[in-house]
Amino acid sequence: MEIEMLFAKYDVDGNRELDEKEMQQMFADLEGQKLQLDDEINNQQSMIASDSSRPPTAAAFGRGNGSGVPADEFNVLTRRVDRMEHSIGSIVSKIDAVLVKMEGMEKAKVKRRENMNKILNSISESENLDEKAKRQQMEQLVREELQRWDSDQSLNMRR
């Protein structure tokens, strides 16, 4: 579901692939969100540091002791934040892995397209051959290309 939302937001041309410009926009937005969160954290820390600028808390009104959050509640919230940070880190590393795989797929697609163009060009350039010779040449070129693909896939599986 999150991936669909990501593509809906950043896949401007609708081809279901993020090109370099679209990925740069995504990274820029993520960096902006990170800076925004950093600013919020810094503002919270500065408010905590100076008690005079600190707004009255609900705990001060409700409990009357003004001590803030109880230690056990603070510990529970700290553990939840730690789990969230771990989950977010895991998600970011998965997104990075997906982007790396997408780059590899894009490079392979370009390479296959170039090779198929070479095959088609060599067939169209051999006008002096009869149909049987053209067919044999085409079969040979396609067979070689398929063997190249198989060897590339076997190399990728060993990684």
Characterization of the model:
GO terms for molecular function: calcium ion binding. This is Polycystin-2. This protein has 159 residues and is mostly helical. The protein is built from five helices and no strands.
Entry summary:
The protein is an all-alpha fold and 159 residues long.
Task: Identify the notable features of this structure and list them briefly.
mainly alpha, 5 helices, Polycystin-2, elongated, calcium ion binding, 159 residues, EF_Hand_1_Ca_BS, EF_hand_dom, 81% helix
**Helix percentage:** over 70%
What is the oligomer described by this structure? Answer: single chain
Determine Rg (CA atoms, Å): 29 Å
Mean pLDDT score: 80
Please give the alpha-carbon distance between the first and last residues: 29 Å
How many DSSP helices? Answer: 5
What's the count of strands?
0
Global structural class: mainly alpha
Which residue ranges are poorly predicted, with pLDDT under 50 across at least 5 consecutive positions?
A: 58-64
N-to-C SSE string, H for helix and E for strand: HHHHH
Strand percentage: under 5%
How would a textbook summarize the main sheet?
A: none
Shape: elongated
Layout of secondary structure:
Blueprint: H1 2-10, H2 20-49, H3 58-63, H4 71-125, H5 131-158
Helix pairs in contact: 4-5
Domain EF-hand: 1-33
Protein name: Polycystin-2
GO molecular function, one term: calcium ion binding
